[in-house]
Amino acid sequence: LAHDGERILLVHHRRLDRWLLPGGHVEPEDTVIEDSARREVVEETGAVMDDAFPPPLLGVDVHGIPPKGKEPYHLHHDVIFGFRAISDDCMVSEESRAVLWCSPAEFDHYDLPFNIRRAYARFLIS
Q1: How far does CA 79 lie from the centroid of its chain?
Q2: Separation of alpha carbons 16 and 121, rounded Å
Q3: Close Cβ partners of 54 (under 8 Å, ≥ 6 residues apart)
Q4: Which tens digits make up the pLDDT trace of 21-37?
Q5: Is 10 strand, coil or helix?
Q6: Would the pLDDT of 4 be above 80?
Q7: What tens digit of pLDDT does each residue of 58-110 get?
Q8: Which of 15, 45, 86, 125 has the most neighbouring CB atoms within 10 Å?
Q9: Cα–Cα distances in angstroms (integers) from residue 74 to residues 34, 64, 122, in the given order
């Protein structure tokens, strides 16, 4: 969850066709899981994160992913960290159709799932 003080950064996921938080998978070069999360935010949005702000863990969400092609049904684990952005500049990557900053008043408009709303609420008290 990238936050600028009032809004969170969302990506319109190309394959899933819905608004979600930036995210991805842990890579061998990621020394700690927070590095994975930060790298994915930057890769997917181009946002600049505040390196001096240690990201709090805001949630862990486990959900099933239906089979697709040769990939069988499996459980997906989302580990959500809160990052503070130092600019509202962002860009669209190949994985997304759009990127935008979303205020809490717009959460319903973008049909954000409960785990994102909960992570935002936790970020406010962290």
Answers
A1: 9
A2: 24
A3: none
A4: 998 889 999 999 999 99
A5: strand
A6: no
A7: 999 898 888 989 989 999 888 999 999 998 889 998 888 999 999 999 999 99
A8: 45
A9: 23, 6, 27
Per this entry, what is the length of the chain?
A: 126
Handedness of CA 64, 33, 20, 91 (dihedral sign): negative
Strand partners, 3: 8, 84
* CA distance linking residue 43 with residue 50, whole number of Å: 15
What pLDDT score was predicted for residue 6?
84
Q: Phi and psi (nearest 5°) for 47?
A: -65, 150
Residue with tokens 């717009």: 106
Distance CA 18, CA 10 (A): 10
Q: pLDDT (tens digit, 9 = 90+) per residue, 40-64? A: 999 999 999 999 999 999 999 898 8
SS3 122: helix
Give the Cα separation of 94 and 62 in Å (integer). Answer: 25
